[in-house]
Design brief:
The protein has twelve helices and no strands. The chain is mainly α. It has one domain (8-266).
């Protein structure tokens, strides 16, 4: 498998844009010259994968500029929304590549991840897995509405998501409940909205990980940024577990129902 062949990337990334393919090719070429990065073919944990995605689509954005300048005027809600709007298209392309490669050439996907891990110096990032205690109950108050039985959704998630943290499942259900309450008079409007899966993921895992009391203040210190990346990556790990589990269980409809509900709740 010649990863340096200029035509190789276009042959395997058939559903991605030329600009995206060029970025992947550049990173792989750089990694091939550093410590034999391409030679690492082991399957990566979802936490390590989440670290790569968090670095690419959250840390290495204008958020890093806000951190570097310590400006108390730059970290605003509008700033974060614009940041995610700018990165969501490339994030969407990454998800397309991820689905294609994991289905057809999974080893290649892990090689790509390893290349980014090498180039972005992510070996020192927290790699703790999501740990769920046995028999830990889902404790959340939900109310059914005339056009939607959220208890059914709660049961479906509980039955399928055995490897997700309880806090993640409860939080997702709370957002879903909020969307249903908001649109209770016309549930169909939720599914008629044009949404971006990547934008929903970024809003939930990245934007909502920023403590509200950070906005308008000089709190993007080195230690705070480290904690923010740890928590954001942990959230994204939980999300990838949910996504992969539902896809593998042929529950894509359930997954995208959650995406649409969260899009409505998060207003993205």
């Amino acid at each position: 498998m010649d990863l340096i062949d200029k035509d190789f990337f276009k042959k395997v990334l058939i559903n991605n844009s030329d600009d995206f393919i060029s970025k992947i090719e550049e990173i792989v070429s750089q990694a091939s010259a550093i410590r034999g990065g391409i030679g690492k073919k082991e399957k990566m944990s979802l936490r390590r994968e989440a670290n790569v995605l968090t670095k690419l689509f959250f840390r290495d954005t204008n958020l890093e500029n806000a951190h570097a300048t310590h400006s108390d005027e730059i970290l605003t809600y509008t700033f974060v929304e614009n940041l995610l709007d700018e990165t969501s298209q490339e994030f969407e392309e990454w998800l397309i590549m991820r689905d294609d490669l994991l289905e057809n050439i999974p080893t290649l996907y892990y090689i790509f991840l390893r290349c980014f891990e090498v180039i972005k110096s992510l070996e020192s990032w927290n790699q703790d897995p999501i740990v769920r205690k046995n028999n830990e109950p889902i404790n959340i108050n939900l109310f059914n509405y005339k056009e939607y039985n959220i208890e059914t959704l709660s049961r479906d998630l509980s039955n399928n998501l055995k490897n997700n943290s309880i806090s993640f499942i409860c939080n997702v259900l709370q957002y879903c409940h909020g969307a249903i309450k908001l649109y209770q008079n016309d549930i169909d409007l939720i599914y008629e909205r044009e949404i971006s899966e990547a934008r929903v993921i970024a809003e939930y895992c990245f934007a909502r990980s920023i403590p509200t009391d950070w906005f308008g203040k000089d709190l993007l210190t080195d230690s705070n940024m480290k904690e923010l990346m740890i928590f954001s990556s942990s959230q994204l790990t939980d999300w990838l577990i949910m996504r992969d589990t539902l896809f593998e269980d042929n529950e894509k409809d359930l997954y995208y129902e959650i995406v649409f509900l969260l899009a409505a709740a998060l207003d993205v």
